[in-house]
């Protein structure tokens, strides 16, 4: 039993969402795709009445609506004996709502913001199943009618008996085929739902950071320790090591996870606008500000603010940022009213902030406010045992994205990847694997990149870094000897070195410096 494209395009669809842009977007998408029977409503209270009149084949239902939310609509449809056969496809932007919706009786869900290709695919698949069920019901009725008619006729003539048996065999064969198709489609939908539920369950989990190395395990341990607290976290590490992912992991494990995580990329904000972006502005606060703007701190109230690349923030803005971190209050540009907020700060940088403080480019008091709980993310070259795991992860990802079936990684290919120093870290590796998947022929991953220039640079830099550490060691020992190993006070080594005494002690412990 086959469902044609016309059958699907003529199915009756109801869109329920209190946001007019969402309704218009979905309606336009369906109409442009050729669907002819599309109804919309922004009033969830009329859904049951509309369904009784129109007998819909599919309802696209938003979960968060005033007066009556999506869960209440599904409960009303259940009470009306409609949910047993009517597919409901819920629309939600909340990951934790998806599993609830499936448990409440929804057949599937679509995440907001919409992926239009995904929306069309899911609607097509669900309608195909729905119409198969309808045809099955119709076939059952037809079959019963045939049986009744044939039974009457069998009493009149034995000659027609063979014909009736043959007809019944054909009908049963058709029915078995129909059940087989339904089972296949049901299994497919079930597998997709299982996959999506796993994706929801692990969203912003450590699965986003692939690796089992000791250095990475230490990072995971620190995240677990600090996430439930309200302490400020400073993420340190080179570009591409995953500082943004760790920030999201901390937020998702905190008591603030139901509130927003607002990200501020300090490298992209223009100096002239950074204050209004962070703190907001009133209309007419400066030339060209023709509307009121809510700042990032207000948006993050009750949640978390992620200040990415904090080392790039202009010096004049650092004092104002320090005040908000210390007192939890600020004023919008153009307004005298003080606004109080409760925001957790996570900052990240690839710079050496201690050097920035020494060079007068970063405020020392702000540094100490941010450096409450530092977490250093190791570069990829220091955890090369994770490269094979990362390659497998990215290979699965890009096979699916590009539509290939590459499942063989030769030892030569792996050796090539492990010999590279990866100055761009995991981000560079991800790009290299995507490029390799595109260029590879057959089922074996082919690494065509040549990394010589970067590797030579990295080889040159490693001794320099080592020499810098040794130089710092010698300098600290020399100053301590000059001060008679006195650390604090006006004549102490900490003041001469421009360090906080506790920082100097930590450096001494780290480098094994003891009194000689």
UniProtKB/TrEMBL annotation:
Modified residues (4-aspartylphosphate): 62
Lineage: Bacteria, Pseudomonadati, Pseudomonadota, Gammaproteobacteria, Alteromonadales
Keywords: Activator, ATP-binding, Coiled coil, DNA-binding, Nucleotide-binding, Phosphoprotein, Transcription, Transcription regulation
Pfam families named in the record: AAA_lid_14, HTH_8, Response_reg, Sigma54_activat
Residue ranges of domain Response regulatory in the record: 12-127
GO terms of biological process kind: phosphorelay signal transduction system; regulation of DNA-templated transcription
Domain (Sigma-54 factor interaction): residue spans on this chain: 209-438
Entry-linked Gene3D superfamilies: 1.10.8.60, 3.40.50.2300, Homeodomain-like (1.10.10.60), P-loop containing nucleotide triphosphate hydrolases (3.40.50.300)
UniProt protein name: Two component, sigma54 specific, transcriptional regulator, Fis family protein
One MF annotation (Gene Ontology) recorded for this entry: sequence-specific DNA binding
Positions in coiled-coil regions: 168-199
SMART domains: AAA (SM00382), REC (SM00448)
Record organism: Shewanella frigidimarina (strain NCIMB 400)
InterPro entries: AAA+_ATPase (IPR003593), AAA_lid_NorR (IPR058031), CheY-like_superfamily (IPR011006), Homeodomain-like_sf (IPR009057), HTH_Fis (IPR002197), P-loop_NTPase (IPR027417), Sig_transdc_resp-reg_receiver (IPR001789), Sigma_54_int (IPR002078)
